[in-house]
Amino acid sequence: MKERISALRLKIAKERLDGLVITDLANIRYLIGYSGDNGLLILTKNTSLFFTDFRYQEQSKREVKNATIKIWNRNLFEVFPVTELKGVKKLGFEAESLSYSNYRRIKQQLKKIKFVPTENWTIQLRSVKDNEELRLIRRAVAINDSVFAKIIKQIKPGITEKDLAAEIDYLIKQQGEVAFPTIVGAGRNGALPHYQPGTKRIKKGETVVLDFGTKYQGYCSDMTRTVFVGKATKKIKEIYSIVLEAQGRALAAIKSGVRAATIDAQARDYITKKGYGRYFGHSLGHGVGLVVHENPALAKTSKAILENNNVVTVEPGIYLPDWGGVRIEDLVRVTKNGCENLIKSPKELLEL
Ligand code: ZN
Ligand code: ZN
Questions:
Q1: CA 25, 27, 30, 31 torsion-angle sign
Q2: pLDDT tens figures, 296-308
Q3: How many angstroms separate the alpha carbon of residue 243 from the centre of ligand 2?
Q4: Does residue 339 sit in helix, strand or coil?
Q5: Which ligand is nearest to the CA of 312?
Q6: Model confidence at 193, in pLDDT bands (50, 70, 90)?
Q7: What is the pTM of this model?
Q8: What is the largest CA-CA distance in the chain?
């Protein structure tokens, strides 16, 4: 964790600032280990100060590393700790996280200190995972794999989407936390990429899209499988094989140094060639870590270049409005020569 702060300090110095105010809670967790809901980290050349309120006093003592803990007002911005900023002339803040009202509150109190926006500094550091992070992500993935192996036995005609989602959540919670709202979309509902499970009962002859993730000690996994209830029809076999092949092409192209947009194109061009391009309306994938959607994005418009130890999803899909959807999502670690697929759950079309 110390190296993470050093890397950020290097960036602060390089950009000629005297300090940085970190307000994004995932960034704070990444830098000093704090996992609570109220906190503010101020990093200068020689000091690392963490502010929180009384409710998190004990938790901070247990969690915080490489920072001095200061118990402050519940509203951390109302009285900003200006007295702690001796020698600071230019102070950065996280433009993507600090709200405008809190920005104004701080600015009023800074007087002679210049308050400068920065963008995505820590988030960019977070996109390359270290060994400890990889260990936790692997664990989150393993839990997801074990949940999938159990849940496919419960997918039967008559069970509702909501009940199935609740079963998934229960299995996840036995070993971790739910990383994001679980998606169970049966039949036509599978055509909505971010569908919320409802009271619809699963029927024979339908696809079921299952998209769920586990959070383990702060780190997320993310996986989608699409299964078929009954004997697969020609149509589902066709769509499924296109999505699987598109994913395979993208996976085969991944390695450090390659543009993220190129990976997106591998899958998208194939689906388009097969005539379903307009039914694949979202980007191919995203980074995963402390937050389920982070850098780098695997998207048409992405400027990112893949780096060793990025962890990204690869999740092409085809969504036909009156029919349903197929999405297959894996989570991989980018390496120098290719990628390591962290997910072990089977990918052939399961007929349940
Ligand atoms: Zn997902
Ligand atoms: Zn995803």
A1: negative
A2: 999 999 999 999 9
A3: 15
A4: strand
A5: 2
A6: confident
A7: 0.94
A8: 72
